[in-house]
Amino acid sequence: MLRHILTAGLIFALLSATVASVGALWGQFPVDEKPPSVTFSPFDSQTEQQWLLTLSSRQSALWERMDKRLQVNADDHEASLLKGLLYFQMAQLDAALHELKTLTLRAPKFQLAHLILGDLLLARFDQLDQIGSTPLITTLDSTDTERIEQLRKEAKARLHGYLALIDQSKIPRALISLSDSIDYVLVVDKSKNRLYIYENAGTAIPPRLVDDYYIVLGKKEGNKIEKGDLKTPSGVYFVTSYLSDEVLPRKYGTGAFPVNYPNEYDRSLRKTGDGIWLHGTNKDLYSRPPLDSEGCVVLTNDEFSRIGQYVKPGKTPVIISEQVEWISTGQWLDRTIELQAKLEDWRQKWEKADIGGYLDTYSVDFWAKGHDYDSWSRYKRRVLNNKKSQKITLSDLSLLGYPRQSAEGKEIVVANFRQRYKSNNYNGDMSKRLYLIHENGEWRILYEGRQ
């Protein structure tokens, strides 16, 4: 029977039974007797514990963050879980138990919450070394022990991701400039198993963090290279559509947002595979271990439903990084001005038919559909020789930085915009995408094509 606790229903039943029986004993514990010492901590090291517990400003910031999230959404189960853990860390066992008991009633499929509640109840009677180290749990066979280890990894990933922003007042380097048509950007930090939601705050104002979530990633670490490698890709992607649960197998949960992997840059590197989605969790489960998907970004079903308010298929960017790089507001502004000026320089040289200056804005490694740099140069020289006048306007501009970890350390920026072109012999209107690369101290165009 123990082997079957791998299923969500039976592990819930097992842990609920543990909670009930130990809870009855705990109620009989002498009020004036001190509980035994507890060595279990949700934090990895003494350094991490000292970081949190000896600096009141950080502790206050964590409480404020949890309370704010719960005020906005009373069903923020992760905030409740971590609030219970912090109560326990601060030796407020009664408060921790109350928080976890309430959470397990609200989220009966949240296996991690049930496991930790059982730990906290038994902490009154025994010394605990780590999550899931109760006598009942330690008698399980190897398969069941692996499931408990997965829950420990989930607890660690949730905690580390949640704490990551406590001292963080900077901006993701990837968020350079957002057009009025983009309301939100999704930023994935694979190192933290975290999805950040940033809101477009307007012209010349840095994007604002409005939400963040624990996520599950591919079973294998690193950047996706080929079909079936079980890795989550890193790069700048865009949500292409929405798939409801009515048309999906049960394992995808409440829905899915496919993204455009492989993108133009991926294809240039001959990467293979497809079907990279943001989606929910198997409806029999609540959540999963940090590395458990086939390459997709997975959320709980409740949280997947919540991110629907932020996503606009065809518009919303999804930036996936091995590790998010952070910059100051001043650096963000300088970077934005520099790249917008570069695009304006490209536009002006094209409009003025300055063929030498125009072609100098392109990298020698440039490619487009059916072209490399040499064939593009010949094509543009031929076209511009027939132009008596040109008027080019760019609008709806967004600039997004490519993760350097997935671009061999190079600085690459994706520019999306609306281009209106009018000349003596042609009028056109299109949604265009450029990839710009920083080489030899200059930004140059690496790719050009339709969105």
Features:
alpha+beta, L,D-transpeptidase catalytic domain-like, 3 domains, 5-stranded mixed β-sheet
Q: Counting H and I runs of at least 4 residues, what is the number of helices?
A: 13
Q: What proportion of the residues is helical, as a percent range? A: 25-40%
Whole-number radius of gyration? 26 Å
Give the CA-based shape.
elongated
Number of domains: 3
What's the end-to-end separation, in Å? Answer: 54 Å
How would you characterize this protein structure?
The protein is α+β, with helices and mostly antiparallel strands and 451 residues long. It folds into three domains: 2-163, no CATH class; 173-325, L,D-transpeptidase catalytic domain-like (Beta Barrel), CATH 2.40.440.10; 327-450, Nuclear Transport Factor 2, Chain: A (Roll). Helices cover 36% and strands 24% of the residues. It is built from 13 helices and 20 strands. The strands form five sheets. Strands 2-17-18-19-20-15-16 form a seven-stranded mixed β-sheet. Strands 5-4-3-13-7 form a five-stranded mixed β-sheet, with helices on one face. A four-stranded mixed β-sheet has the order 8-9-10-12. A hairpin with a 2-residue loop joins strand 15 and strand 16 (371-372). The longest helix is centred in the last third of the chain and has 23 residues, at 329-351. It is elongated. It starts with 7 loop residues before the first helix and ends with a strand. Mean pLDDT is 85; it is low at 1-40.
